Amino acid sequence: MISDVVVIGAGPAGLSAAVAAAEAGASVVVIDENPRPGGKLLGQLHEEPGTGWWIGAEISKSLAKRAEEAGVRILSNRQVWNLSPKWEVALDNGESVCGEYAVVATGAAERPLPIPGWSLPGVMAIGAAQTLTNYYRVRPGDRVAVVGMDPLSLTVAHELSMAGADVVGIYLPSKSVFAGSQADPDRNLEYLAGMSDLAPNALLRWGGRLASNRALRNLALTFFPTSGIPLMGTKLNLRKSIVSIGGDERVQHVEIATIDKHGNPGKTRTVDVDCVCISGGLYPVQELTRDCELVRIDQLGGTVPLYSPEMETSQSNLFVAGNVTGIEGAKIAMAQGTLAGTAIASRLGRIQGKDAVDQAAEAVRSARKSSAITFMPDIDEGRRIAEDLWLQLEREKSMTQKDESYA
Amino acid sequence: MKRISEHPVLGPLEEEEIGFEFDGQSYRGIKGDSIAAALLANGVRTLRYSNRDGEPRGIYCGIGHCYECRMTVNGVQSVRACITQACDGDVLESQGENRREGSNDF
Ligand SMILES: Cc1cc2nc3c(=O)[nH]c(=O)nc-3n(C[C@H](O)[C@H](O)[C@H](O)COP(=O)(O)OP(=O)(O)OC[C@H]3O[C@@H](n4cnc5c(N)ncnc54)[C@H](O)[C@@H]3O)c2cc1C
Ligand code: FES
């Protein structure tokens, strides 16, 4: 199969790239290993400032419909195994799809956070709980403990209680090599501080306000009630961590320790639960860009490909969009996808002039400004580092070109 | 059992039912369910048993990365239950040591 553009990943970024390119007249194929398009958008559900509820399942459906109306072919249930230059995409069924341009929009995944007992049925990643609850409408448990304190875990805790689950508490992971600073109460308060006033639910807003003031933060840690702070049907526990998960054949209880303000455990207690949701943080899924210039930038969530202001990587005609470039919200992923698709359409000669590309680039900037959730507290700094490294790469490239022309 | 039929924000549930079999027992699901979601809605958490010790395993990542949910679907081994849609008439089997015929964990 040959087309102008092959997009890998039917999340908000990939679908938006496909729509932009196809609506300009390019032929586009999108590949995703899930049974339906939408990516992580499918499970999302939160209140957006000014615009009401963000129901990911519905937005996914309308994006996919728009893509199909523009002539995009969406291949679902197909895993991409390899991507090779100019651009051939190898699928798990032995077939391949070729395109003059490729867009890698493989999104984000969750870091595992091992806790003793975590292999028991009933322990799951917070994202699995999110999709089960909001998309499949199946409650992952009736009494749920959430581990890890970050914008995603707070959002999902709220979603779980809206769906009728009893969220017994949000706890820190216990100190371990895996948990790192995630087990440190002060680091967590600082993290909460990074969340803007626009935060989508009261849990987030409360956390943000409390933690934004350094003096308050110190006070809050010292006096944070060891019983946690009750909030929207659950408890935020900065002074409690999960020591282990137990049960016969499935989760039946967790062991919770009271910790001091540095995260060191003291007394423990057993709490009955039938589900534990672990939030270990998100990272960009970038295996398919391995031949591009890559750089590890922790502020963006991990290793990411470097890319131009039009989303092109160091490999010509290979573009990226969405969380593969760093962990951000769905609206930003969509704007990045639109930019990549528009830039490709322009390169294909389907769009005249630079206006459309400039507008799409501006839309990414404004999506960032109005973003409701910030997943990585220092994301702006991460972006700046990535942009600088790209410019450096460009300079080096033009130097070698000059050298070669003199030779 | 664990199905969220009432939700303050989301609309009504899809009502079209499907029927399938897992380790010899019959279950009902809703059209569009993933296999893992349909089983969990029936209270089934254990999807396979670990090869080494025969310990029960269930859904973990939910996005096809960890392979904890792999099972045999209509004779095909190691299919990921979290990203595979349940279809009417499916015959599903758990894999691994200790597999117990008809076992479930209500
Ligand atoms: C668990 C989780 C929860 C999140 N919750 C929220 C939230 O509530 N609000 C919010 O704004 N943001 C949330 N995010 C951030 C989220 O990543 C972005 O909102 C957005 O979905 C990113 O879009 P994307 O298109 O870049 O990637 P994704 O939405 O991740 O889509 C990528 C797609 O690529 C597919 N894919 C990847 N590799 C392959 C391959 N090799 N072969 C075939 N297909 C492949 C995947 O199956 C997936 O469908 C969440 C992220 C995660 C991981
Ligand atoms: S739960 Fe991880 S692959 Fe299915």
TrEMBL record, chain A:
Cofactor: FAD
Domain MnmG N-terminal stretches: 307-348
Every FAD/NAD(P)-binding domain range: 4-171
Keywords: FAD, Flavoprotein, Oxidoreductase
Molecular function as annotated in GO: oxidoreductase activity
Keyword Transmembrane part of the UniProt annotation: no
Alphabetical list of InterPro entries matching this protein: FAD/NAD-bd_sf, FAD/NAD-binding_dom, Metab_Enz_Cyan_OpOx_G3PDH, MnmG_N
Pfam families referenced in this protein's UniProt entry, alphabetically: GIDA (PF01134), Pyr_redox_2 (PF07992)
Protein name per UniProt: FAD-dependent oxidoreductase
UniProtKB/TrEMBL annotation, chain B:
The keyword Oxidoreductase is assigned to this record: yes
GO molecular function: iron-sulfur cluster binding; oxidoreductase activity
Record's keyword terms, sorted: Oxidoreductase
Cross-referenced InterPro entries: 2Fe-2S-bd_N, 2Fe-2S_ferredoxin-like_sf
Pfam families: Fer2_4
Protein's name in the database: (2Fe-2S)-binding protein
